[in-house]
């Protein structure tokens, strides 16, 4: 019943693929649904050294640091060593060329912030934005853990935020996925309105507290309700960590058609918006583009990679395409 109401509310009225428990996978996710993505996460990258076609190699240079290097030892220079690793001070002091040897840092912590607020419970074509966010978060968690790094995150709704501290084991990953499913399944078309919904700033403050330095932080959200504090927190996190922003949008937000009648509800009251009205159409378009403009400003100011996700298509193919693993002409 709830899924039927959500499909009517969002426009997703086509017959959904069957699921064992009878729910619509475009409306709500299940633990088995997220776990089934593990095999498809292989090869995905949320870190530097992207393929040439990746959005991480876009017009704005990315300042992603990637893994750090741990100093191991000083030793005599050997033929074939990279001259850039020569320690000139030691070489001058000893009279013999020495090189500094480093090993790549392992067990790097990652934090994935997953938005499951009511603003994410909307979709007009393929799935709800909340489902796209949940799937993207699961893919990131699988890939991070597969690399031997620690994974954790903050899953938040309108009235709560669940914190999972980064750990490099499957039980931590399963707690993370379970928290996503619980938050996602709390979203209902007939849910009562919340007086003061949780803002994005609270999970960002949590991320800033946990990720003091050298973390990978991925924010998957529609970035509803951003303000000056949001921009300040984004800059603070980006200054000492690798920060990737994944704005989740619906195709309708990209181009609001004129002459469309929308029924908007807060769970108790509802109003009809007719985009045939030039003023209403203009204001809706400005509201939609304004949020994206803010994110693009952060991208330019802080050198952040932005991975824009659409609820209008399947999650895996678009991530592969956006990170350069599949050409734009192949779907």
From TrEMBL:
SUPFAM superfamilies: vWA-like. InterPro entries: DUF58 (IPR002881), vWFA_dom_sf (IPR036465). Residues 73-280 form the DUF58 domain. Coiled coil: none annotated. The lineage of its organism: Bacteria, Pseudomonadati, Pseudomonadota, Alphaproteobacteria, Hyphomicrobiales. Residues 1-25 are annotated as: Disordered. PANTHER family: BLL2464 PROTEIN (PTHR33608), DUF58 DOMAIN-CONTAINING PROTEIN (PTHR33608:SF12). This is DUF58 domain-containing protein. It holds the Pfam family DUF58.
């Amino acid at each position: 019943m709830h899924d039927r109401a959500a499909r009517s509310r969002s426009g997703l009225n086509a017959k959904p693929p069957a699921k064992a428990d009878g729910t619509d996978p475009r409306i709500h996710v299940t633990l088995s649904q997220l776990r089934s993505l593990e095999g498809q996460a292989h090869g995905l990258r949320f870190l530097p050294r992207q393929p040439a076609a990746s959005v991480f190699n876009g017009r704005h240079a990315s300042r992603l640091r990637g893994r750090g290097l741990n100093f191991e030892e000083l030793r005599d220079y050997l033929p074939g060593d990279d001259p850039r690793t020569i320690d000139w001070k030691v070489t001058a002091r000893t009279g013999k060329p020495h090189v500094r040897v480093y090993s790549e840092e392992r067990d790097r912590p990652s934090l994935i912030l997953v938005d499951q607020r009511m603003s994410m419970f909307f979709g007009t074509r393929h799935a709800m934005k909340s489902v796209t966010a949940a799937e993207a978060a699961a893919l990131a968690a699988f890939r991070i853990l597969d690399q031997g790094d620690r994974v954790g995150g903050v899953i938040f709704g309108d009235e709560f935020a669940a914190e999972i501290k980064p750990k490099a084991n499957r039980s931590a990953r399963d707690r993370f996925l379970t928290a996503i499913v619980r938050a996602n399944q709390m979203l209902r078309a007939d849910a009562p309105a919340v007086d003061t919904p949780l803002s994005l700033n609270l999970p960002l403050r949590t991320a800033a507290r946990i990720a003091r330095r050298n973390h990978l932080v991925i924010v998957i959200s529609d970035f509803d309700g951003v303000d000056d504090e949001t921009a300040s927190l984004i800059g603070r996190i980006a200054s000492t960590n690798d920060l990737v922003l994944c704005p989740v949008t619906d195709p309708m937000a990209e181009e609001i058609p004129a002459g469309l009648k929308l029924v908007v509800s807060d769970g108790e009251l509802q109003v009809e918006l007719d985009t045939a009205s030039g003023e209403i159409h203009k204001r809706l378009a400005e509201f939609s583009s304004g949020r994206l403009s803010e994110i693009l400003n952060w991208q330019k100011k802080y050198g952040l990679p932005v991975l824009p996700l659409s609820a209008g298509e399947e999650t895996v193919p678009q991530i592969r395409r956006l990170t350069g693993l599949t050409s734009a002409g192949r779907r």
